[in-house]
């Protein structure tokens, strides 16, 4: 319809000066006309020039008054021609907003006498506001003064109207030719008669629907790459369920330790206990807890096998490290660098920075004669590869490391020191019962994957990163990689 009208019109006329007027004249929808113009212009049937005009449109409130009359006139009409009406009575007759606005406008216009009783001062009023609104609605001309008062009353708002003036283009024809768009056998056979649509080499392809990596997986990959570049081997972490023995006892964590309470740890109902543990090693662990050895006095309490047998959801990946170190101790000693990145579980109150499950990143180096200096050096190397070169260390406590250090990094964006991890040297009470040689030291550190990911991707609520509230669009749009925490 619109296409036919435009092309026919241009056959006999130089130009269409205003697509808006054209649409009104031919009773066409202007939006439809604009779409056709864009398409005809694309094929160069027509040349166009942009037109822009400021017009006014009614707000919802304006539309209401255009239909029902202005509040001041509604109020005026509710006041009896003779005598008066009490203000309360009048209020009951009108909608609250109509009453409020009506009172002030009708008072200002000196149409009514406002007091406890309301009476008319004149007998006839004209609803100019409604008239003006209707005029604007119909796109007619109107005077500047009424515009500013309607604008001040928020009954109208400005709107930019966009249209075109149109002339014939280089490919003009009174009717659109169907152009061939595909290189089919038939089209190639009579290519001489056909007009082919030009290729648009600038057109963007349709976005491919594909899977997207979650931000945690992307940052995990970055950490993995760093560990691998530094010569670390990945530990097998495929056991979310662990026994208390490997999670706590092997790490010289006493059985009364608060972390071993069900308020902090998820214990399993079924199967509630582990089946097998290496018995002679269990005996040595019992011994070191109860009475020490290897230069330690131990904790001096009755170590209970039942406690060690209890199954739980591992609370840290250091449980995996303890298994790996034990396995290492069963063979002639070779130095090792191990890492793991996987999920751990804690019975914590969930808030914007804590969930009951998260990912831990853990690294450890085991070799003869390592010192705290080695640990600090490795941490500096490791974190500087993540763009964190300003580090500070603070003495801390872990049952399985001595000395222990919390790791802080200066965050340029946040302008402050933030805690990024925990570290230490595993205690002899942990390493010697395993059977590792006496001069072997193990330096280790751990951090969460969520914290750096949140900093990197600018997320401040962990529930936006993990769980059912995560916005899938965010995952699709996130950059592949981020460097420099
Ligand atoms: N396991 C510690 C934690 O859960 C991290 C850690 C790992 C600390 C290795 C010291 C050595 O926070």
UniProtKB/TrEMBL annotation:
Which cofactors does the annotated protein need, by name? Mg(2+)
GO CC, sorted alphabetically, is: cytosol; phenylalanine-tRNA ligase complex
Q: Which residues form the Aminoacyl-transfer RNA synthetases class-II family profile domain?
A: 218-479
The record's principal subcellular location, in a coarse class, is cytoplasm
| Pfam families, per database record | PheRS_DBD1, PheRS_DBD3, tRNA-synt_2d
Decide whether keyword Metal-binding is in the record: yes
- Could you name the domain of life of the organism this protein comes from? Eukaryota
Its UniProt entry gives the catalysed reaction(s) as: tRNA(Phe) + L-phenylalanine + ATP = L-phenylalanyl-tRNA(Phe) + AMP + diphosphate + H(+)
EC numbers for this chain = 6.1.1.20
Keyword list (alphabetical) reads: Aminoacyl-tRNA synthetase, ATP-binding, Cytoplasm, Ligase, Magnesium, Metal-binding, Nucleotide-binding, Protein biosynthesis
InterPro entries, A to Z? aa-tRNA-synth_II, aa-tRNA-synth_II/BPL/LPL, Phe-tRNA-synth_IIc_asu, Phenylalanyl-tRNA_Synthase, PheRS_DBD1, PheRS_DBD3
| Signal peptide region | none
Q: What class of enzyme is it?
A: ligase
Q: Which GO terms describe its biological process?
A: phenylalanyl-tRNA aminoacylation
Q: Where found in the cell?
A: Cytoplasm
Q: Which GO terms describe its molecular function?
A: ATP binding; metal ion binding; phenylalanine-tRNA ligase activity; tRNA binding
Q: Which NCBIfam families match?
A: pheS, PRK04172.1
Q: What PANTHER family is this protein classified in?
A: PHENYLALANINE--TRNA LIGASE ALPHA SUBUNIT, PHENYLALANYL-TRNA SYNTHETASE
Q: How does it assemble?
A: Tetramer of two alpha and two beta subunits.
- Please state which protein family the record places this protein in: Belongs to the class-II aminoacyl-tRNA synthetase family. Phe-tRNA synthetase alpha subunit type 2 subfamily.
- Please state what the protein is called: phenylalanine--tRNA ligase
